[in-house]
Amino acid sequence: MVITNELTINKKRLNRNMEQLAEFGKLGDTGVCRPTLSAIEKQAFAKVAEWMEAAGMTTRLDNCGNLIGRKEGKDPEAPVVMTGSHIDSQPNGGRFDGTSGVLCSVEAIHTMSEKGIIPDRPIEVVSFCDEEGWRFNKGLFGSRGITGNLDADELNRKDKDGITREQALRDFGCDPEKITESVYPPGSIHSYIELHIEQGPLLEKVNQPLGIVTGIAGPLWLTVKVKGFAGHAGTVPMDMRQDALAGASEMIIAFNEIVKQDPASTTVGTVGDLKVSPGSRNVIPDEVEFTIDMRDIDKDRRNMYEQQLRESCRNIAEKHSLTVEIIEDQRTDPSYCSSWIKEVIRSESMDMGLDAPKMMSGAFHDALIMSSVSDYGMIFVRCKDGISHNPEEYASQDDLAVGAELLYRTLLKMAQHEAH
Ligand SMILES: [Zn+2]
Predict the structure, then answer these.
(1) Rounded to the nearest whole angstrom, what is the distance from the C-alpha of residue 344 to the centroid of ligand 1?
(2) 67 C-alpha vs ligand 1 centroid, how far in Å?
(3) Residue 187 DSSP SS3
(4) How much distance in Å is there from the Cα of 393 to the middle of ligand 1?
(5) Residues with C-beta atoms within 5 A of ion ligand 1
(6) Residue 380: CA atoms inside 13 Å, Cβ hemisphere, count?
(7) pTM for this prediction
(8) Which residue range(s) make up the domain with 298?
(9) 196 C-alpha to center of ligand 1: Å?
(10) 292-343 pLDDT tens trace
């Protein structure tokens, strides 16, 4: 096991920065509310930019609202190695989600600069705009922005106060008219690495501070609409009913059985929302709508399970004399991390005396978007009880320091010409 007082990175500085950043938008003792493109995020960006500059980087805010720090390489024309995450939070979020990745990256560059190391390729640290997505109901904005993946109506999206994304960007100091200027030309990003808290319980279970991410499970989001016929709860005999909720309940149980059929697989499935109409205790439900979130790193398996789900729904609907319609809301392909980056992370972590397990990410990150234009990898840091998006979210100072050390070593390798 690595001894934390033998680290190259400065653990004290990293922890001080983590603590100071947690003050921006602080909620209670340990919570954070730092909405994207808000005045509080602007202040936090100014602080992070100050740390980036102290770390030897030049800084800029692009027109998508990304804060970018750049450490120049020996070859300034070379495609850039990127690292980063986000510092916007959930409305009642924690101190580590996103911030860990940004500040460990800044610490890694600071260490390089102090040691007088100039990497072959330039390295950029990005704090991506609106990863979380709740303010305008669509996230990963900054990473979609620089990779040219924004939708046409993106700037017209409104928050709950009626402020458009366009206005919020303007208020933040960006020029939405020039948003496309933020897109990196094809081939100009060499590779991307993101450190993030795990947001799950596996590392804690195996008692390891860090994990090597093998890939990100793409989510499939469906809405299932079941229609039956309303009637009096007291007078319609059971065998004459078209009860949409009775049918939907069977469908939900069937869905759970489908995703659990292979205990060795990492497939997960969730029904997180259910609407019952008319929603009266003495009326047989005539319409039920529920959501499906299914994630898997194996796309073929996910497709197979989806077909099984569709068939089950049809059969159950028939049995109850119902109709069923399945609407596809989002279909994101899973993506595997690049083997050469996983290999760099693996050999550096072994060199540090760690036995970092390989694991997939069930949550999506800016890294998933970056994978559309560049090689990528991710490092996970253990977090207490797997809790995130919650003030209880916690990663220890030691684990974060070891994470920053592994990120530092990995970045050094990724930024060498001979790396890949
Ligand atoms: Zn995050």
Answers:
(1) 23
(2) 16
(3) coil
(4) 12
(5) 97-98
(6) 30
(7) 0.88
(8) 219-331
(9) 7
(10) 999 999 999 999 999 999 999 999 999 999 999 999 988 888 999 999 999 9
